[in-house]
Amino acid sequence: MSDKSTSVPGGSIPGVPGPQAPELAEPTEPREPLPPKPDQDGPETVSPTGVPTGAPKSSNAQSGRYLTTAQGARLGDTDHSLKAGPRGPILLQDHHLREKITHFDHERIPERVVHARGAAAHGVFVANGAAEGVTRAGFLAKGTETPVFVRFSTVLGSRGSADTVRDTRGFSTKFYTDEGNYDLVANNIPVFFIQDAIKFPDVIHAGKPHPDREIPQAQSAHDTFWDFVSLHTEAQHHTMWNMSDRGIPRSYRTMEGFGVHTFRLVNAAGETTLVKFHWKPRQGVHSLVWEEAQIINGMDPDFHRRDLADSIEAGAFPQWDLGIQVFPDTEDEMFEGIDLLDPTKLVPEELAPVQIIGTMTLNANVTNFFAETEQVAFHPGHLVPGIDVTNDPLLQGRLFSYIDTQLTRLGGPNFAQIPINRPHAPVNDMLRDGFHQDADHSGVAPYQPNSLDGGCPFMAGADMGAFIDVPTEVPASRKVRENPATFDDHYSQTRMFFRSLTPVEQDHVVQAYTFELGKCYEENIRLRQLQSLANIDERLATEVATGLGLEAPAPSVVVEDTPPSPALSQLGGTWPVAGRLVGVVADDATDLGALNEVLSAVAAEGMVPLVIAPHGGKLGGEVTIQRTYLTARSTEFDAIVVAATGAPAPDAVDSLDAKAGNPEGHPSLDPRVTMLLAEAFRHAKAIGALGDGGSVLMAAGVPVDAPGVVVGTPAEVTAGVSGLLASHRVWERFPTMVP
């Protein structure tokens, strides 16, 4: 029997499919189901009404040694239908066939209209007490540990789309507090396309594939999207964020989260404060470059979900700090001239610093994707005492929409009883019956007031932890379909965001707009969007227009200049490197002692080393190979270390691997190694080489004296690469268009 996982010095390689390695022969001795892998967890075992059962989590899983029907009858054959003779027709009385096929036919539920493609994990949130002065929410009291379940997602694509498309990402967290479930339904962008929920169907219809051909999938580079956002200029701020590097995150682990809306907190004294929620990743905010994203979409469309699961399995648990920006709860609900109810506006951190109120750690993968990731139901109206909503018109619409959509997706009103959605607090809601009612309610009086059930359930007072809707003044006014005048500025913050970026980030924005608008068929849509760009920034409009072969228009409105916000740039800091992937190129001529030294040093830094070699198996009978020249691509790795000659492998021919690109015979260097190094260099990644490996770099066209290239001993290379990865990329390799 082989080892359960592939070991490397100092750690293990994630990706093992099961908790136990299989035997070569088919097992024949009956046994109980295998347990989940060590990195997996499931929902807590609470009853449908929120009572802890004390049962192990395995009680929710399949049990028994033998295959059974759904009713528990053991089966002796599941390979052959019941027929009238070996060649006869199948009989209607085959109850097992009908049960098996009927269940299979109904395995899929409707996918989410938006955020259909997602990945999720379990974790824990620990509060530091900094929020105790502004909210009485119990889970934010100092030292309180709260189980959480987090689902990340893309917005536009279907369940079968790719991870690394340019899109907004969802970042939704369910806190299982002892006061009930609280859902923070967030995005990785702090502003939204629209100011009023009534336009949500419009922006999604515009962003989704064209209804006649169902293309393009999971992208905004098409006419209907740009038609909408160029006509609804309130969308320009969110669109600018999407066209920045924020639209293509490196990982869910390196992605910020924002509650978008302004929420109202209430403390124990009944005092109220307005806040915006922020998730700050401990590993920093990092992105892919556009070419990387395009390659990954073809090589590994599951890149983000694999990265999340692998990092948890490898023990590099992702962490985020939860923070709040705090504002006085004034009558006008404004702060420094910014309307806090406008979801297309942000408040720069220089004006209102983010105060950290706790830390979340994701430490367990899901046990079953459908039962947990697909069936989890979030809702911004899942609130706890101490947190309330505001009159943000986008948030107000979401309070209706999220409940409504679960009725269709999850088969009725009892979706809160699905294990992943069950509160960890007692539930006595007087709600009865309906599809998928799993609770066995007792009593005869599910109404209030009653005497037949002894008056139970009773009302709770504020001193008993009741949720209190914060009394607020409703402005005396006419019923109107209007926005306040403070919602009218669509460009000043968009300009601020663009001008807060570094030159290399601005270049990426120019490239993104040029690509997206270049995919539009109608020239008038391009011209209309160019007008908005001209109102935002003259250089931006000019360079995009040049790429499109059009004239840049003059600004059509006067836009206020606001100071840039350095906090909006992703560059300039250093961050922990735990969980980063380092590809180590080796072959049969590699010094195994030096190779093991590199692998140990990389693992000791909390990074994950993956050995790339000409063939599979082991090097020298001891070092396991995780990738071959055939299966590897630079986009999987954050850094590359060369410890090989790079000589061509036997399959370095076009007929076996098109990446080899060598119809004339074998060169001195395998073309896949050349491509690996050239791409890594072009994408500004750290590159190292042991000793004579420098000659391999030179042969691949990588200058050994270039920024971000380290040549030396195993210790020198590992230290150098680790130091470079702290900044994510070697940014000085990117020339910029800014003078």
From TrEMBL:
GO BP annotation list: hydrogen peroxide catabolic process; response to oxidative stress
CDD domains on file: GATase1_catalase
Keywords, ordered alphabetically: Heme, Hydrogen peroxide, Iron, Metal-binding, Oxidoreductase, Peroxidase
GO MF annotation terms: catalase activity; heme binding; metal ion binding
Catalytic residues in the record: 115, 187
Bias (Basic and acidic residues): 28-40
Documented EC number(s): 1.11.1.6
Domain of life: Bacteria
Cofactor(s) this protein cannot do without: heme
One cellular component (GO) term of this entry: cytosol
Residues of the Catalase core domain: 68-456
Region listing for Disordered, in residue ranges: 1-64
Pfam families: Catalase (PF00199), Catalase-rel (PF06628), Catalase_C (PF18011)
SUPFAM superfamilies in the cross-refs: Class I glutamine amidotransferase-like, Heme-dependent catalase-like
Protein name (database record): Catalase
Organism annotation: Arthrobacter sunyaminii
